[in-house]
Amino acid sequence: MIIYQVDAFNNKIFKGNPAAVCPLTSWISEDLMQSIAEENNLSETVFFVKNNQYFDIRWFTPTCEIDLCGHATLAAAHIIFTELNYLEKVLEFNSKSGKLTVEKNKDWYTLNFPSEEITEIETPSILEKALNVAILKTYKGKWKLLVELKNEVDVANLAPNFNLLSKLESNGIIVTSKGNKVDFVSRFFAPKLNINEDPVTGSAHTLLIPFWAKKLNKINLEAIQLSKRVGILKCKHLNERVEMSGQAITYLKGELTL
Question: Which of 151, 161, 190, 211 is a plausible cystine mate for 172, CB 3.0–4.6 Å?
């Protein structure tokens, strides 16, 4: 089995978010996919199978399968376009989160994902203790919390208590503020999934894009995820859908001996 590793949402090696990409000719067992993801020990390993003109896609963390992953989808698209000689400009994935499309424009890839609604909630006391910073407002999505902070400095300087964060009901915590040089910045923590901090999180931007589009009264936005590896995204709000564009670079190509 061929395996690739791609750094997504940046065009430099060792930046962005690394994902393992495993093209398949037919589906292997869930247990084997989970074992491969665990062995890779990256935040995501993505598997896909060509299905007529579409691609069926699934994503695995080292511990479980998830319903949606942005950076690994971008990584898979990058491999399909650059290594598997896909000649069309747009490719379509079938997933547990519905239809996902990726359009290639030179060295940028635009992902079209469903947007996610959020509702404001009272900030949990355990969240305040875990972040140890002044929180403006807290919102809840399907399985993520979105936490608005005062400024970019507060987001950049966060040193969360991951043990406390893992006790929250939500699997992921998005922390965000208005940016200094871009429209908004963010960081993403998921200790409940054994990912203390994810370098760049496409699925988090399905909440972030509509939130900031409404707040800033803008359709097109630029964003940076302020992890050590840094993620750069161009975003567009399309009401029920969002677009996020990023670059990618292949780090390795190898073979699995199974």
Answer: 190
pLDDT tens, residue order, the chain (258 aa) = 999 999 999 999 999 999 999 999 999 999 999 999 999 999 999 999 999 999 999 999 999 999 999 999 999 999 999 999 899 999 999 999 999 999 999 999 999 999 999 999 999 999 999 999 999 999 999 999 999 999 999 999 999 999 999 999 999 999 999 999 999 999 999 999 888 999 999 999 999 999 999 999 999 999 999 999 999 999 999 999 999 999 999 999 999 999
Bridge partner list, 90: 103
Euclidean distance between CA atoms 24 and 45, whole angstroms: 13
Question: Model-level pTM?
Answer: 0.93
Query: Is 44 labeled as catalytic in the residue annotation?
Result: yes
CB 71 within 8 A of CB 17: yes
Write the CB contacts of 125 (distance below 8 Å, at least 6 apart in sequence): none
Tell me if 70 sits within 8 A of 201, measured CB to CB: yes
Candidate list 30, 38, 39, 44, residue with the active-site label: 44
Distance CA 187, CA 231 (A): 10
